[in-house]
Amino acid sequence: MKKIWHYVGVIFIMFWGLAPFYWMLITALRDSAHTFDTTPWPTHVTLQNFYDALATDKGNDFLGAIGNSLVISLSTTAIAVAVGVFTAYAIARLDFPGKGIVTGVILAASMFPGIALVTPLFQLFGDLGWIGTYRAMIIPNISFALP
């Protein structure tokens, strides 16, 4: 009997976790007139919403935004992993003067709130002419991604 209640609990938690995704999907499949229907399944199924989101003729550039996100995230990840691995190895395995200071600076920098740098970075990147470029997103992301 305990095993049955265990499975009932697992199914309930699974339903509870997946219900928002199901609701998001059926809302996306409804047409605009039936967006706010509360029926558990769509009555008028359409793919027009997906076309509207992906169509570039309506002024949308969703796929371009996804491409930009991929360039920024992959560049940030690759550079941060490369720098982080070598830095971590050097700090962990090598003995050098000032090792404690370097470790303390890294720890202090990771405790600094990133949002406090938004305005100064915007002003700096504006002065450098970097607004609207990839490097204006990649460089701060690297510094935030490194421990």
Structural descriptors:
147 residues, mainly alpha, 2 domains, 6 helices, BP-dep_ABC_trans_perm, transmembrane helix, Carbohydrate ABC transporter permease, MetI-like, transmembrane
Which SSEs are present, and which pair or pack?
Elements: H1 2-29, H2 48-54, H3 62-93, H4 99-111, H5 118-128, H6 135-145
Helix pairs in contact: 3-6
InterPro entries: BP-dep_ABC_trans_perm, MetI-like, MetI-like_sf
Subcellular location: Cell membrane
GO cellular component, one term: plasma membrane
Written account of the structure:
This protein is mainly alpha-helical and 147 residues long. It folds into two domains: 53 residues, no CATH class; 84 residues, no CATH class. α3 runs parallel beside α6. The longest helix has 32 residues. The chain starts with a helix and ends with a helix. The relative contact order is 0.07. The mean pLDDT is 91. This is Carbohydrate ABC transporter permease.
